[in-house]
């Protein structure tokens, strides 16, 4: 078949010319309903005729043969047309708002200060872009730094035309698959374009602008000029924009003095300045440094031996301000520093934040901030002495939040902020501290209430596990109380009950609840740590910001709010470029939240808790603030960490105190060991009292939702309706979620006949007169060899009297006798002949023997610092 365009002959039946690609005319004027072979012979005609006849007889007509080559070609063509069309649309949108290169570069010299506003719309801090930027020529920047940044960021920098086509194709494929700008493909030239004008927000329009501006920069400036501008512009963390600021900020060196080790560490920062900040997380910074060194070897800047030596060499961190004459500490520095980090995470560049003339509206409450900072300094000075160091060993941190909208009103990252780049111990994700018993409401108690337990559910405070030959868990005073309801166990922070409870509801269930409902960053290592996490035996731990977020769920009826620092950002042209509004997730019901509110109110009860034995004061008994409030203490081994997490219906305050690097033991305070209620509690109390007064916050009770039932006569030893035998001191009232209230009568107290003259002997026929006394049924978890619980003094005697035998002397003088709840004398020495119940399953891994919280006897306390402070 001859092609009408080029005149070349093609094989008969061809659809397209194999020489020029032109579509060939179809020789058949009419197409039949079935395919005609491209060749003709007698046999084929006969065969076709037979097939035709067969098709007609069967009533079936064959469809047209699919030409897959044509289908593929049409599909590819359609995709290309669509792709070009969409690409054209993206390019047009990018071009419409594209600035000129000259105006972009001039931003370096024409920066406008950005202003931070508080929650009331009042300006509180001005960000000076020139404070942490000093431009230096490329000749004054060490070749080590130039080589390191090129190797890790754009190894083809000197040969590419401002873009890397291979990277663009790879990124384009990923972006098409994900329907958004997911994969980066930026060269140094494109990064400079972004840093000078664009944001880090990943959109296809922004990526197109980055590409266009990069081309213009590459056309206008030499490679040396572009590298010069990039190194003087790039943000390298800690408020340092440009290589000079970063060299001084981290090492107190000029850019010309940077060693290979220092240059490799700085070159790793542009990817994630906060994450790889060596002043905050040196371990991650070293991992990133190794990546840079490997890239320098790969692209010929170093030999493997040189890279190995550089990795082993000290970097000599020596943080200082860029220019001590001009450097400043912003007002409310802990808060302002975090706002800057939040904006960076939202895609704002360092240039925009410091030089963009932004109006940054925040949730900061200056009054609350000042109260919180003063409370931290006041109590830390009182407990540990006035610090003359910018980074004292004994530190504290606090977070104040409005639980109903997620507004972070104040954050205090440590004692008085005294220098730039000071470590924030409140919000820094690398600050992970053991929670002690403050984890209990999140990991055990709330999950148990959701699962159907009540605040009056009873756990047997009897040890059931042995670890290294010792009974575990144990309370600080090594006292086991016997029957203990959840409300009282949480109030005195009983460790044994907490472990029992987590064991009973399921370790994985409690772990998942704390991780996904309260948002705590638990790890698999924590899960594998076993039941020890019930009392704070975590492998990593959390910071006070994360704990405050979790606790804020309680006063907000089970709704966990997204934290809000920045509410709105307005650019220099008056356009709103970022806005955040309150948003929450329902994690559990208001009824569950109310039960937890009531349980944690008991933690602050100043009165001894009745009928549970000695040392029955709640752990926060002296931290009441004169209005309804709830909370939980926490103490780590050696008092290395002390916590108090507490709230009212309108406010949540979290406080951590401890040794800066987690060392222990911590010294005692004037009020005793640095427990949670001693070292962290007074800070919490002072903040709460003063904020409520200064902000005129009205007194409110925790709102009781519908579906709650009050039961006035619950036995604290059974969790059921008190029987006629229960002593009045063991009968208390409590709130229940509708459907979980007790309906049956408890049987933990029961009548027993004992010999009238020998009440430590069980009566039988022939033993003379008897009396009927009420005794406490012994705990099923107890068996011989296990420490005897405190309430064993109320157990029935086990010795049987001998009939017709001369009575022995009265046991009234026996040291083993004591008074039962009903007033009768009973034995406190249970017989070893009583059959033992099977023990519970032991933990799968050795739990941590953390102290949790401490059940302390009454002690002198002071709610105010000593004279002169």
UniProtKB/TrEMBL annotation:
It is found in: Cell membrane. Signal peptide: none annotated. Pathway: Glycan biosynthesis; Cell wall biogenesis; peptidoglycan biosynthesis. Gene3D superfamilies: Biosynthetic peptidoglycan transglycosylase-like, DD-peptidase/beta-lactamase superfamily. The chain crosses the membrane at residues 71-92. Residues 122-296 form the Glycosyl transferase family domain. Its EC number is 2.4.99.28, 3.4.16.4. One of its GO terms (biological process) is proteolysis. Residues 40-50, 813-834 have a biased composition (Low complexity). It catalyses: [GlcNAc-(1->4)-Mur2Ac(oyl-L-Ala-gamma-D-Glu-L-Lys-D-Ala-D-Ala)](n)-di-trans,octa-cis-undecaprenyl diphosphate + beta-D-GlcNAc-(1->4)-Mur2Ac(oyl-L-Ala-gamma-D-Glu-L-Lys-D-Ala-D-Ala)-di-trans,octa-cis-undecaprenyl diphosphate = [GlcNAc-(1->4)-Mur2Ac(oyl-L-Ala-gamma-D-Glu-L-Lys-D-Ala-D-Ala)](n+1)-di-trans,octa-cis-undecaprenyl diphosphate + di-trans,octa-cis-undecaprenyl diphosphate + H(+); Preferential cleavage: (Ac)2-L-Lys-D-Ala-|-D-Ala. Also transpeptidation of peptidyl-alanyl moieties that are N-acyl substituents of D-alanine. GO terms for molecular function: penicillin binding; peptidoglycan glycosyltransferase activity; serine-type D-Ala-D-Ala carboxypeptidase activity. Residues 858-869 have a biased composition (Polar residues). Keywords: Antibiotic resistance, Carboxypeptidase, Cell membrane, Cell shape, Cell wall biogenesis/degradation, Glycosyltransferase, Hydrolase, Membrane, Multifunctional enzyme, Peptidoglycan synthesis, Protease, Signal-anchor, Transferase, Transmembrane, Transmembrane helix. Pfam families: Transgly, Transpeptidase, Zn_Ribbon_1. Residues 3-24 form the Zinc-ribbon domain. Residues 40-61, 798-869 are annotated as: Disordered. It is a single-pass type II membrane protein. Residues 397-652 form the Penicillin-binding protein transpeptidase domain. GO terms for cellular component: outer membrane-bounded periplasmic space; plasma membrane. Cell wall formation. Synthesis of cross-linked peptidoglycan from the lipid intermediates. The enzyme has a penicillin-insensitive transglycosylase N-terminal domain (formation of linear glycan strands) and a penicillin-sensitive transpeptidase C-terminal domain (cross-linking of the peptide subunits). In the N-terminal section; belongs to the glycosyltransferase 51 family. This is Penicillin-binding protein 1A. It comes from Sulfobacillus thermosulfidooxidans (strain DSM 9293 / VKM B-1269 / AT-1).
